[in-house]
Design a protein that fits this description.
Strand order of the largest sheet: 1-2
Largest sheet: 2 strands, antiparallel
Number of strands: 2
Shape: globular
């Protein structure tokens, strides 16, 4: 069975103190077009639509969605602990964007959807590591760095599936 999360445990969810700025940063991870809400729904959709033709891929994708749900839960808890409001809304500067289903890639073509997933995972790794470096709360930074480890595993799984698909069609 393909691993879908890193072996190391998640750090304890806690914060040094309230910080609305840090909470606002994390809202993008929660509810933006490249955030966990998008990944979860996109992966569930893919699981539903790929089950018959690509069972192994569909099963791996649904397991990845479960890890993303755990990330969503941790992010919501951290946002709340930091004094923010963990609703499905991303805050960028003075603008607020609510999560919506149009953020999901609904492609049913395997190479297209795998490339979309690869992009989501690359974005997550980059964002989590950048945020872990920027945020000076060591507890929040540790959670973000640990979540990035999972996203790297997801990225590699999708890369492998795409490579296998390309090889099988040549």
């Amino acid at each position: 069975m393909i691993p879908v999360k890193a072996a190391s445990p998640y750090p304890e969810l806690k914060v040094e103190g309230r910080n609305i700025h840090y909470a606002a940063i994390l809202t993008g991870d929660l509810a933006s077009a490249t955030g966990e809400m998008t990944a979860i729904y996109q992966y569930l959709y893919q699981h539903w639509t790929l089950q018959e033709q690509f069972e192994e891929i569909a099963q791996t994708i649904v397991r990845i969605s479960e890890v993303e749900m755990h990330h969503l839960n941790m992010l919501g808890s951290l946002i709340d602990m930091l004094g923010g409001n963990p609703k499905c809304e991303a805050i960028h500067g003075y603008k607020r964007f609510f999560w919506q289903g149009s953020m999901v890639n609904y492609s049913r073509e395997l190479p297209v959807l795998l490339k979309s997933n690869i992009y989501l995972e690359q974005s997550a790794v980059r964002e989590y590591l950048e945020q872990a470096d920027y945020i000076e709360d060591p507890y929040v930074s540790a959670v973000l760095a640990r979540m990035a480890e999972d996203e790297e595993i997801h990225y590699a799984a999708y890369q492998d599936f795409l490579a296998e698909y390309i090889k099988s069609t040549q």
